[in-house]
Amino acid sequence: MSDMNNTPPLPPQPSNSEPASTPTPPPAAPGAVPPLFGAPGTDPADRVPITNMFGASEALLRHPRRIWFQLTQSGQLHLTLALLGIALGCALVYGFVVGTFSGQDQLWAAPVKIAAGLLISGLICLPSLYIFSCLGGANTRLLEVCGLVAGLLALLAVLLIGFAPVAWIFSQSTESVAAMGALHLAFAAIATGFGLKFLALGFRELNARFSGGLRVWAAVFVLVLLQMTTALRPLIGTSDSFLPSEKKFFLAHWFDTLDKDSRTGNPR
Amino acid sequence: MNTAVQVTQIPVLLRGETKSVVAWIRQWDWSRVRAWVAVTVLGAALFGAAIGWWRAPLQAFYTAAKFPLVLLLTALGNAVLNAMLAPLLGVNMGLRQSLLAVLMSFTIAAAILGAFAPLQFFVAWNVPSFNLELRSAFLGYRFMQFATVSFIAFAGVMANVRLLPLLRAHAETDAAALRVLFAWLAGNLFLGSQICWVLRPFVGLPQAPVEFLGPGLFQGSFYEEVFQALRAVLLQQAEVGL
Predict the structure, then answer these.
(1) Is the pTM of this model over 0.80?
(2) From the CA atom positions of chain B, what is the Rg in Å?
(3) pLDDT class for A5, splitting at 50, 70, 90?
(4) To bridge A97 with a disulfide, which of A164, A268, B20, B226 should be the other Cys (CB 3.0-4.6 Å)?
(5) pLDDT digits (tens, 9 = 90+) for B153-171
(6) How far is B59 from chain A (nearest CA, A)?
(7) Residue contacts between A and B (CB atoms, under 8 Å)
């Protein structure tokens, strides 16, 4: 983590006594979104080093500009790994809560599947995000894009931890697999929304604006996440095997679950 | 500059930084050509493997070998024609420059396809094996087709979008650049479709054995098949009408 402390000096601040020959920034294009509060790093608070995973998770929630700034610095790989560690840890904990609905083997199977599914989804979609950013004219490096995706996964998983007590209460109260599935999907949707917002603002802060491509990528990422829940089923409920033998589209799986739930009550 | 360093400049191509690309096209640099060919082969092979994987692992290997050939043979096969069409239609480009421009365009397409390869693998992993008797399998097959065509179409469109500013930089007028783009596109589509036909199968039929090249290697053509299909549809319509 020592590399993360090597933050460069502050860039020169603009002053009123600049020479007349200083080029003025070009006027903003019509419809362009202005930067939030200047580039990351111009505020001294952005430069506070992130030394461990707790610092990274606090920065994710309270001061994401610190993350975006550190991702452009030399210690970005350590930060990316710290973010992935947060994502992995939080997903395992949330997965355990999901597993408490059925108990038994699901107590270890659900955490493994949820953590693996989250990381694999990020890995599957990472190359296309980098390509979309390049096609959109963004001058971001692959490591920065990796860091932003790691931040998206970490924030998503941290928020799921916030929902975990609520999910646990419901999992102990209801017998319906469909109801629990809907609840977990709702929590995941909220967490993914915040995660995608983190990613979009991160690209904007890194001066990489490609809103059209990013929207398409976000849709693809959500589809991959949804399909992953079906490819790694069951996350909720029980099964004889760790992974399913039958391939299914996630909508078909949802309708089958709803149908089974309404006919039999679909016990845990 | 060595080939590995040239590969790191692929994002410049993707961003469409015309100034850099125009300078690269001006001179033939073997290390750059090797890098572009390497990216084309790798990207197309990854995507080809993802398509073939759905049928069988051996088919993935075969399609990974054949898919880059489609791009490279199309670029080489039309090199002379493209070089002739460019000055005729108002773009000042020689043989080497036009070949480099087309190769650049295919490199962009292959880089995009390579980036989509994990998604294509994911689709192949989740789509049931082809079975006409199972409705879900048939719908899955259709979804797989849709995803594959969408990825290829997007890559193709972006490759041509990036080619246009380069042509404009060498053209007398914007209209001339557009004419050359469409002429090259038509030529590449015409030859590329037939090369695909010759190198088939890329996925293969479920009841047929996995094979590198089909039994009718040089029998018929893509366009004859399209014509026969159209004729069958029209004649059927006529019979129904009678």
Answers:
(1) no
(2) 20
(3) very low
(4) A164
(5) 899 888 888 889 999 998 8
(6) 20
(7) 58
Taken in order B114, B112, B143, B141, is the CA torsion positive or negative?
Answer: negative
CB-count exposure of residue A77 (10 Å: 0-12, 13-18, 19+)? middle
Residues β-bridged to residue B91: B171
Structural domain boundaries in chain B: 3-241
- Chain A residues with beta carbon closer than 8 angstroms to that of B117: 127
Could you tell me the two tokens for B207?
A: 């009841």
For the stretch A154-208, pLDDT in tens is 999 999 998 998 888 888 888 888 888 999 999 999 999 999 999 999 988 877 7
Q: How far from each other are the two terminal CA atoms of chain B, in whole angstroms?
A: 70
How far is Cα A221 from Cα B49, in angstroms, rounded to an integer? 22
A45 exposed, middle or buried (CB, 10 Å; 0-12, 13-18, 19+)?
A: exposed
In this predicted model, what pLDDT tens digit does every residue of A26-43 receive, in sequence order? 444 444 444 444 667 677
Q: Which chain B positions have a beta carbon within 8 Å of A249's beta carbon?
A: 126, 136, 139-140, 143
pLDDT in tens, B37-92: 999 999 999 999 999 988 888 999 999 999 999 999 988 888 888 888 888 888 88
Task: Look at B111 and A124 and tell me if their CB atoms are within 8 Å.
Answer: no
Question: Radius of gyration (Cα) for chain A, nearest Å?
Answer: 21
Tell me the C-alpha distance between A234 and A242, whole Å.
8
From A130, A138, A230, residue closest to B115, measured CB to CB:
A130
> So what's the ipTM on this one?
0.73
In degrees, rounded to 5, the angle at the alpha carbon of residue A190 between the alpha carbons of residues A189 and A192 is: 65
Three-state SS letters, chain A: CHHHHCCCCCCCCCCCCCCCCCCCCCCCCCCCCCCCCCCCCCCHHHHCCCCCHHHHHHHHHHCHHHHHHHCCCCCHHHHHHHHHHHHHHHHHHHHHHHHCCCCCCHHHHHHHHHHHHHHHHHHHHHHHHHHHHHHCCCCCCHHHHHHHHHHHHHHHHHHHHHHHHHHHHHHHHCCCHHHHHHHHHHHHHHHHHHHHHHHHHHHHHCCCCCHHHHHHHHHHHHHHHHHHHHHCCCCCCCCCCCCCCCCCCHHHHHHHHHHHHHHHCCCC
Other C-beta atoms within 10 Å of B43: how many? 29
Length of chain B as a residue count? 242
